[in-house]
Backbone:
């Protein structure tokens, strides 16, 4: 007697792997699971599954393609609601349908071109067949170009949005990250230059994954070697960040009528490049130090947020603005077309687009008897092969090993 549990029988080919499968549902105590392993392991030719082996068997049985496999892996590791939605759509085959539709149209175009090559002289295959095939290829090029120009929303959602809190020393950067974390992530003191290195924390903001970094205060007048290194790292991080929260000490703005000029000079003093401002949210911190009249004059302005890390006033409004910006950066996986979530997909899609453009350019630059369609069609075959590498129609053991190794044992 090991435990009281449930045994489920899944006959193939309708099981997850397509094989006859038995599941033992027992209590999850360490001793029970260990006893089950020992008991099952006593049977001949029985072993523990390798990481991802069940999913690999499902793939080889034709139960899912590689995009669905990767979607399932992302679903298992999803930490936020938006990640779950994106992964679920991919695991359910929506991305697979998109790529397979594209591949089918290219295969049909190749078939039409080859029919034109073989039978145009002695059969009823006219130039209209060739023109129709070229139109299909140009439509795929346009669709693929739009798909690739997605500002990497899917990858950003899968990996997390990199956000950085920046500003001069003692404007409340560490206080803000501590407020969002509800714990002491960074050291807060009245001494300028306390934060010397990048301090990262992971957050779920409105269902979007965010990697928020507290950075060293930006200033030029310091001789501290360690602080100088911290400032250099902060500037490097800022260049790569998807979102910047620029903190300004509201108590230093006098008079309030020259707010815009003050912020412009503040940005120049910090050395933040103009091209970074499009990804920046300006936050006037320490708003609790302002009088009510000044605070009322600031609130109607939509270009910045007022915040007090001390009293938490303005935090809800700031988070609402961050949410809007996250939606712009990651998209809405519930309503938008499936996006590219893996660098592997983007690499093969770019190669696919290159092959298709080579075919199109050759077709435009030549005409009639000057065209060697038999040779140039290999660009289309290469394009089809690139899509096949994404879905697994054309697979290599190296790709498979990398993908399935990301699964937990028993998945």
Residues:
């Amino acid at each position: 007697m090991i435990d009281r549990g449930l045994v489920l029988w899944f006959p193939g080919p309708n099981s997850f792997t397509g094989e006859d499968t038995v599941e033992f549902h027992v209590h999850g105590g360490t001793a029970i699971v260990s006893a089950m392993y020992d008991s099952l392991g006593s049977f001949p030719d029985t072993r523990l599954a390798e990481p991802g082996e069940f999913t690999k068997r499902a793939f080889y049985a034709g139960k899912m393609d590689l995009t669905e496999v990767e979607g399932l892996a992302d679903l298992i590791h999803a930490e936020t609601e938006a990640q779950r939605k994106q992964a679920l759509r991919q695991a359910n085959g929506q991305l697979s349908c998109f790529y397979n539709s594209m591949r089918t149209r290219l295969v049909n175009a190749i078939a039409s071109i080859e029919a034109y090559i073989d039978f145009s002289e002695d059969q009823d295959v006219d130039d209209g067949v060739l023109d129709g095939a070229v139109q299909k290829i140009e439509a795929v090029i346009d669709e693929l170009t739009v798909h690739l120009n997605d500002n990497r929303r899917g990858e950003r959602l899968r990996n997390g949005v990199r956000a950085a809190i920046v500003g001069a020393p003692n404007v409340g950067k560490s206080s803000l990250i501590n407020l969002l974390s509800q714990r002491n992530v960074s050291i807060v003191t009245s001494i300028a230059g306390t934060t010397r290195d990048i301090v990262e924390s992971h957050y779920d903001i409105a269902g979007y994954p965010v990697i928020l970094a507290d950075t060293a205060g930006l200033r030029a007048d310091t001789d501290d070697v360690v602080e100088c290194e911290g400032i250099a790292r902060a500037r490097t991080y800022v260049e790569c960040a998807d979102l910047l929260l620029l903190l300004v000490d509201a108590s230093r703005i006098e008079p309030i009528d020259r707010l815009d000029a003050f912020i412009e000079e503040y940005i120049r003093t910090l050395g933040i490049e103009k091209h970074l401002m499009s990804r920046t949210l300006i936050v006037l911190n320490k708003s609790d130090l302002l009088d009510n009249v000044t605070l009322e004059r600031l609130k109607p302005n939509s270009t910045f947020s007022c915040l007090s890390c001390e009293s938490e006033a303005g935090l809800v409004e700031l988070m609402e603005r961050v949410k809007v910006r996250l939606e712009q950066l990651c998209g809405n996986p519930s309503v938008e077309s499936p996006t590219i979530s893996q660098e592997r997909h983007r690499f093969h899609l770019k190669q696919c687009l290159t092959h298709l453009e080579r075919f199109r350019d050759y077709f435009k630059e030549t005409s009639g008897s000057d065209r060697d369609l038999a040779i140039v069609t290999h660009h289309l075959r290469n394009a089809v092969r690139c899509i096949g590498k994404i879905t697994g129609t054309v697979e290599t053991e190296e790709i498979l090993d990398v993908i399935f190794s990301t699964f937990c044992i028993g998945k």
In short: The mean pLDDT is 85. DSSP finds 15 helices and eight strands in the chain.
